[in-house]
Each structure stands twice: as structure tokens, then as C-alpha cells.
Amino acid sequence: MPIRLFESQSREVRPLQPSHADGVFRFYNCGPTVYAPAHIGNFRTFVVNDVIRRLLELEFGADKVKHVRNLTDVDDKTIKRARDEKRPLAEITQRLTAKFHADCAALNCLPPHVEPTATGHIAEQVNMIDVLLQKGNAYRAADGSVYFKVSSFPGYGRLSRVKERELQLGSALAGKSQAADADEKEDGSDFALWKAWKPDDGDVKWDGPAGAAAGRPGWHIECSAMSKKHLGETIDLHTGGVDLLFPHHENEIAQSECCNGVTFSRHWYHSEHLLVDGKKMSKSLGNLYTLDDLVAKGVSPMALRYALLAGHPRKQLNFTLDSLHAAEKALATLRAYRATLPASGGDPATFAPFFAAMEDDLNTPAALGALFTVVNRGPAGVDAASFDRALFALGLNLAAPTTPKTEAPAEVKAIAERRWAAKQAKDFATADALRKEIAATGWTMLDRKDGYSLEKAKG
Ligand code: AMP
Ligand code: ZN
């Protein structure tokens, strides 16, 4: 049975099929901005996308799926972080990329086949902007920035229905793409393809498109350029959290289709947000959790993965710590059940209802229900191989450790406290020296705006 998934542009549930002659399914998932450890909302999106990847592999074969997920390693937030810490941008983004990878591994997310970075694809982005300038879809502003001319693309708004909904283009909804440079634009809805260097950017700059100032790419162009480079001009599926639908994905379509003259993505899918205690996660509300925050409470990453899949991906999910207790119990039940199963000889149809739910627009709560129907019936007629196939689809690794990570020893915590105090007092020399002292103990201090965590260094 084909995997059927809601498609955001047509607003219909549609089957996923590869469109290229080589039979390889081309899948692009917008990745994280590596300026801080990802929060559990981000991980809801990445876990849901990991399940899509797994279903595609089961459907088409592991060698017939190409999954690309980018890393946004230059933008206002990463640059601000580097400025605040007085460290080079690449050092900050590499550290947080390593943290992201460690968290993804703990959550049993398969690594994408290609994980391109924005800073590693400047030439590709500049080339694309040059083409858009030549074709009249972009213009240079007085300060040397380059903007996309939204009125030049009649298809603008097709995905988000931005015109029909009479949203004011360039309004508050526009999220992270909006810089304080509106006065340079010809029209409020135009968006930056290239941002001319500003003093706040420090040493972060590259040579720009023809006739433009030195600076850096806008955010949207990186996905258009990296998707084209690694997957080609037309891809089979493009995904992200619902907040990316507008303007990020709308802008990606405009850039790619004006540049390449062909359909950019045949299928768009957006998963819904995670709420915590019924509210949007935010630092000021104190309800923003990272994986480390939960591990420090004794939660296993696999329980978080389970809890994130317990809600329908296209509905908002209200996360509570109670849901993690239920998840730990469910995992224990699955583990005990697995131990009772023979290796083979079961009825292959046992898990048909499970896979039918998974393939019906990724109905993970219904699939978990079907899984527990099997479990509650007992082991008769079921074998480990088919059970493991179902668990592979969910990405639940029952062998993953259930005990929390080790805590840093008291003496390391004490140095970390001194370093944090030095940083708060803007005594960066002392903070740097203490960072080295911490490193010598085999631990790493990960800074956040409002606190820090200690991680066991790798190797
Ligand atoms: P960012 O690092 O901000 O670019 O976000 C990475 C991914 O996480 C994007 O696909 C976002 O749509 C998604 N995301 C951000 N906040 C949440 C949330 N609260 N729940 C689910 N996904 C989110
Ligand atoms: Zn993107």
C-alpha cells in the first residue's frame, strides 16, 4: 500500500511516489538553526520526519530514498550568539551541530544522507541570486542587498494562500525572515536574498552576487540552493514544522521556480507544533525544554520519542511530564512482550492494521493503538521479526538505555558555576580559562542565554 500523506498545497491526502526515472525518492526536510540546543518542539518535527524517512525506506527500499536535511549555520541568531560569546561563528555552530547530532542519535533518528550547511553553499546561493537578477525576479537595493520581487512571480501565495486570507504580506507572521531593512525594499512583501554586511555581522561576510555588496545570504535561498544541488530541480517531498509554511516555504517556491522554470516540490507536508502546559514554548514562560532538561529529570530519550509520537503529527500536541511516565510504562510493556516472541513463524498479517494506520497520513496514535491490540492479545501467532519491523517504523529502539546520563561530578559543577558567574560579570578572560579547566576534566559546558548544561566530552 502506498504511503498517503496530507499535502499542504492541495490540502488533500495524497500518495507518495518517486517521480524520477532512477526510482529514488527525493526528500528535503528543513533542518535546525544551530545557535542553541534544539528544544523538544524542534524534536517533535525531526522525529516525525524520521518516521517518514523510515516508512519511505520500508516502501521503496533503503537505497531508493535520498534524504537531505540542512543546517542553518549563518543567520541573525547564530551571529548574535557568536558576538555574545566573543567566539568565531564556526566554533559556535560546530559545537551546536555536535550537540544536535548527539540528541538526534539519542532519539534514534536516522542521519540524513546529506546534511548541507548554508556556509558551505555560498557559491550555489550566489549563483541562484545571479540568475534571479538576470531574469528580473530580483533587484539590488541602495545598500547593496538583493531582494526578491514578489510581484514578478504570479504563483506567489499558492502554498499559503496568503492573498486569499488577506494576510498582510510581510506582517508579523513573517517570522525570522524579517530583518529591520524594510525601508530598502520596493515593496513590503519583497524578501531578502542577500543581506549587505552590517557592523553587527563582525567578520561574517562573503563576496556577493553581481553588483551587490559583500554580505551573507538571506535565510530562504539556502534551502532552494541546497535542495537543487543535492536533489535536483524537482523533488518529491519537502517538509518542516507548520511555522515554516509561510513565509519560508512560500519564498523557497518563488526562488526555485523562477530560477529553474519547473515545479520545485511535488508534495509539501507540515507537522504541527508541540505545546507545553497548553502554551507555546518560550524561555520567558519557563516551559522550554531541551532533551538534556528532561534527561536531568531522569527521563529516557526513547520515552520522549514515544511521547512525541503519541499524538497525531498534524494536530498540536500538548506535552506534559505525565505523558513521559505513560511512555516509560508503554516501553516496558513492549520490551517484556518482545522477550516472549519466537524469532520467526508468525502470521505476517498481524501488523497490517499497524502499517495501515502509519500509511494513512501518518496516524501514529492509531498505529500505537493497533500495536497494543496485538500486544494485549499475547504472543500467539506473532514473531520477533515482524514485531521489530513495526518498531523500526516508529524508530523505537527497545535496547536503548533507560537510565539517565551520568551527572557531572561536584568539582566539575563547581568550576562551571565559577565560569558562569565570570561570564555574567563579562569577565571573558576568566571564563575562557575556566572553560579550558572544564575541558581538562573530560566535560564540556554548553551555554544557553539563561543557563548552561554539562556534557560528557566525546572520545
Ligand atoms: P528552527 O531551528 O527554528 O529553524 O526550527 C527547526 C524545526 O523545528 C522547524 O521545522 C520548525 O518548524 C520546528 N519547530 C519549531 N518550534 C516547534 C514546536 N514548538 N513544535 C514543533 N516543531 C517546532
Ligand atoms: Zn528550509
Question: SSE layout and pairings?
Answer:
Layout: E1 4-7, E2 12-15, E3 25-29, H1 40-60, E4 65-69, H2 76-85, H3 89-106, H4 122-134, E5 138-140, E6 146-148, E7 191-196, E8 215-217, H5 220-231, E9 237-241, H6 245-260, E10 268-271, E11 274-276, E12 279-280, H7 291-296, H8 301-309, E13 317-319, H9 321-339, H10 352-359, H11 364-377, H12 384-394, H13 410-424, H14 428-440, E14 443-447, E15 452-456
Parallel strand pairs: 3-4, 3-9, 9-10, 11-13
Antiparallel strand pairs: 1-2, 5-6, 6-7, 7-8, 11-12, 14-15
Residues 30, 32-33, 41-42, 44-45, 240-241, 243-244, 273-274, 281 line the site of adenosine monophosphate (AMP).
Structure description:
With about 450 residues, this protein is an alpha/beta fold. It has three domains: about 5-270, Rossmann fold; about 280-395, Isoleucyl-tRNA Synthetase, Domain 1 (Orthogonal Bundle); about 410-455, no CATH class. The protein has 14 helices and 15 strands. It has helices at about 40-60, 75-85, 90-105, 120-135, 220-230, 245-260, 290-295, 300-310, 320-340, 350-360, 365-375, 385-395, 410-425, 430-440; strands at about 5, 10-15, 25-30, 65-70, 140, 145-150, 190-195, 215, 235-240, 270, 275, 280, 315-320, 445, 450-455. The strands form five sheets. It has a four-stranded parallel β-sheet, sandwiched between helices. Helix 6 (about 245-260) links the parallel strand 9 and strand 10 (about 270). Helix 5 (about 220-230) crosses helix 6 (about 245-260) and helix 8 crosses helix 9. The radius of gyration is 23 Å and the shape is globular. Residues about 170-180 have low confidence and may be disordered. Bound molecules: adenosine monophosphate and zinc ion. Zinc ion binds near residues 30, 223 and 248.
